[in-house]
Records
---
Amino acid sequence: MFAKARLKLTLWYVLIIMSVSVLFSLAVYHGLSAELGRNIRHVSLRMPPQNELLPLPFRAPPVLIGFEESLLTESKERITIELVLINTAILIVSGLAAFFLAGRTLKPIEKMVEEQKRFVADASHELRTPLTALKTEIEVSLRDKKLNLHRARDLLLSNLEEVDKIQALTNYLLSLGRYQTSQAKLPFETVDLHSILDETVEKAQSLAYEKKITIRLDGKALKIQANPTSLSELATILLDNAIKYSHQGGNILLKLRSDHKYAAFSAQDFGIGIKPSDLPYIFDRFYRADASRSKDQTDGYGLGLSIAKNIVESHHGKITVESTPNVGSTFTVRLPLKQSKYS
Ligand code: ADP
């Protein structure tokens, strides 16, 4: 598809360049022919010997000494050949340049389409797993002649789990879509980052409690310009991950600090950590390190950090990670205290 588009674009570029070049050549040809004709005619008129004593009106007029029409035709032919050669050279050079430029123009679009295709394929794949489980459970139960109320209830509970998974995935996908299409268009207001983190910790307590994890929040009130909903989504993603990848009875430390331009907050856990070979990819959509796939308690879709990165970027900030396997991970987010009006 892109090879065809590249050829079409090349043809358009060449057509535009050649139209200008041919028009220019025609103008040059006409200009030069007219000028040559005038010069040749002028050279063909010669002054006869003059009597300098006579006043001007009585002197002998110029004499036509013969006008070589063939000279003019020959010159015109030579000009035509040269212009044809120049235009052929322009056609070849512009063709090659246009092909190269068309490739460069289409490259980012091709990359975007490829990414979009991969995204749709990954999303469908992730959706298919819980849907297949749901379908199989229902089909098996329908064939069961001895299905009683107790079993039907178990089936519904199991179905509900799968529906929850599908709902979580679609929420993630919607979130991702929202941040990718509305980058830098989020409504900002002055918010206290500390109270957002505090609320997030509060909401995560029940999850932490199940794994007997202690969460500590260090820092004091800090006002920044940001979108409060996105910020609390960002903090939730980082804190949920810290809990998910911590060991039973572990600790999580949230730190908030600032310098004169930036606010920085970090989420540190002492859990399974991330292998150096996985680190470059963890912010990619649908990427999950093997360690998190193999353990069934750490369910997820590999979308959280990708959303987190989009949120941080829409606030013109930066997210970084430091991690050592079996020691723990620290995710640090740096956000500007003030947002530029024109960004
Ligand atoms: P999910 O957690 O749903 O798999 P994320 O996008 O949030 O997806 O994270 C991507 C991957 O990064 C995870 O699968 C996991 O391997 C790794 N990861 C993220 N946060 C942590 C953490 N705090 N500790 C260890 N690994 C982590």
---
Amino acid sequence: MTKIFPVTKDAIAQAAAILDGGGLVAFPTETVYGLGADAQSDAAVAGIFAAKGRPQNNPLIVHVTDWKMAERYAETDDKTNARAKLLAAHFWPGPLSLVLKRRKNCALSPQVSAGLDSVALRAPAHPAAQELIAALGRGIAAPSANISGSLSPTAPLHVEKSLGRAVDMILAGGRCAVGLESTVLDLCGDVPTVLRAGFILPEALADTLGEEVRTAYDFAEESGSGAVLSPGQLLRHYAPATPLRLQAVDVTEGEALLAFGSTRFMGLRGKGNVPKEDIFNLSENGDLAEAAANLFAMLHEADQKGYKGIAVMDIPRGGIGAAINDRLTRAARAQKT
Ligand code: TXA
Ligand code: MG
């Protein structure tokens, strides 16, 4: 029996009832599909960890409709809160998760925070996600709807393939417009710190806040200093089964080409042109936002076609290119370990 339901009023009501009863519902957001559970239920949240095979020390993002709902869960009236309010007013609903101190005795399951005293909150922009949270009337804990460590899902079929058996329902709301997971910003320390690169850039956050914003994902990953800021960032991530070869300048026999911009100068080693059907072009026009939206979908597609490898062209690091390169680097690195 198919569990995929297009978004309708009835489907949203049914999905909310499943969540209310402790079940798991995959739902669309503008970034990637989320695997949702009632964030206030220990048993439901435990179900997410079990379904994904997610390490217990990796906390979840709690999805809320707006800042008002966020205030139920986050500590209020301090400096952190002033910053968060400003950012929420500017970027919510949207692809920004804010790590804030948990409100004492708040109703969230402790497991969403994996034992930390903070919680990541986000108001997603996809209308179906908004309606679902509103229908449940409380926060929905939702990591990306894929088996831990594998490619993130940006279409309903990606979810079905990865978690079809584990979810009670998949709400189908088309392909994700952004295509990369949200920017995660930690507001618990003195200096606001980006823990995960995403569509919303550090520069935009700094502009809105009128203060310095640090980026910590490289630091946490490379330094080996034990400064584990965003636990999930240290884990195996985003890896397709097919080996990735980054910054490729040509293609070898049996490889697919994950391209960006013109492929005029890319050749099949010793053979001339790369066969058209082996080229997956993230954006022929060299548009980084389009490339981000296509990244996981094209990796999913190439991954299924039995190539011996995927050669990836160099992608500029500016703007959202930072987040794209972050995902590709993690994917390639994960395969080597
Ligand atoms: O776009 C997104 O964020 C998607 C959609 C479904 O909203 N969700 C998502 O969730 O990507 P997930 O679980 O795949 O990634 C959550 C990231 C992890 O790196 C996790 O470690 C970090 O957020 N995180 C969550 N709570 C945290 C906390 N309290 N402190 C530090 N990092 C936290
Ligand atoms: Mg994920």
